[in-house]
């Protein structure tokens, strides 16, 4: 089967299991997940969905999220959207009736994944307004990640060519290609902000474009002339949100006959003046403070700060809140050219991979979980952690905590080097693990930066492995999880995942 047919088949298999096109309210995707807005989640046939070969896991949040992995999700999503549109319009081909595969399969990995979803659901029900706001902000930046990655890798390649004095005639062109998006990122942020908060996207982009317009240098605010780009993405976000507020106010009060003239004009004028004479200056001060705070934290906290950041990142990933850090990363990249936080946070994935190897070795008589580990470990090395989190460590309980321990020690190692004066940063956001190597940058040369990051990964692997191997299981857990299927006295096979999680 060709790759195109395979992705179409995946989309076609998913659609009926989520209730069909009539149950789909919205379709979107991020780096690894197909995000669906569903009218009625009770129509989802979750066990069958999890059994699909392409599905790595399920996450229930404000949207129903199907983990497909990087690359795959970007190709399956348009196929899925086309099927939804065709079925809605009544033009979708009627598939041949397939034999009923019978009841949903009961396996250790599907039960483990179910346990992960139950925990995620409990945490989602406890979501606070602040967490929901962070998720909305994340929704603004997630669509920008592919461009950030592409431009970041090109910038890294260009820096290497410049340092080696190779191809001097092409480096200027590469610099323009890598910098063009970052120079105008405020416009895209404004567009997505207006879309997320219910305004007109193009008006959000228009207001945010003021931030990067060269002519703002002639405007004086708070006794100083503004600088193009002052306030960066934070200023653009605030300007577009204000624009949405003004636009909604106008829509409620302006007569329909003149709405098309008055509302856009008032929106851009009011939000634009507020941006020039307030938001740009304030956002610029906040951006400077974020950069200074990150430098101070790692210069003075070093290993301790890295330990906390690396150890707490997996719970953020579990809750889907890690994407709320994107504005901070982007602000640091705008200011210093790289973010020093991402390589430290990436150590969480190293701890997770080390823990997974320990789980594999500690459960020699559980082929189901071992198969899950083998299939999810390589994506884990490349920075895709959801399959290991939701399919292995989280439902087992203790291995999730020991994986966090591995990330903490890896983060402490990288943080220590930052404290000693070797900044280890990333020129873009998105990847982690081995996939972060092409994006590394720092203040001591690429070789030393790569060496420190690689050593940090090794520390994370080893610490996560040792913590999980020795402390990740109780004797009771090992006895139960290593019980051969069908042996006398074995307990009900429909409950081990939940039971083990509770005992952990």
Automatic annotation (TrEMBL):
List the record's Gene Ontology CC terms alphabetically: plasma membrane
Topology in the lipid bilayer is annotated as:
Multi-pass membrane protein
Span of domain PTS EIIC type-1: 135-487
Question: What is the official name of this protein in its record?
Answer: PTS alpha-glucoside transporter subunit IIA
Q: Where exactly are the transmembrane stretches of this chain?
A: 140-160, 166-190, 197-216, 228-246, 258-283, 303-326, 338-361, 450-471
Which GO terms fall under biological process for this protein? phosphoenolpyruvate-dependent sugar phosphotransferase system
| PANTHER family assigned | PHOSPHOTRANSFERASE SYSTEM TRANSPORT PROTEIN, PTS SYSTEM N-ACETYLMURAMIC ACID-SPECIFIC EIIBC COMPONENT
Q: What is its main location?
A: membrane
Q: Does the UniProt entry include the keyword Transferase?
A: yes
Which InterPro entries does the UniProt entry name for this protein? Glu_permease_IIB, PTrfase_EIIB_Cys, PTS_EIIC, PTS_EIIC_1, PTS_IIB_1, PTS_Sugar-Specific_Components
- Give the positions the UniProt entry annotates as the active site: 30
**Domain PTS EIIB type-1 stretches:** 8-90
Under Gene3D superfamilies, the record lists:
Glucose permease domain IIB
This protein's species is Streptomyces toyocaensis
UniProt keywords (A-Z) are: Cell membrane, Kinase, Membrane, Phosphotransferase system, Sugar transport, Transferase, Transmembrane, Transmembrane helix, Transport
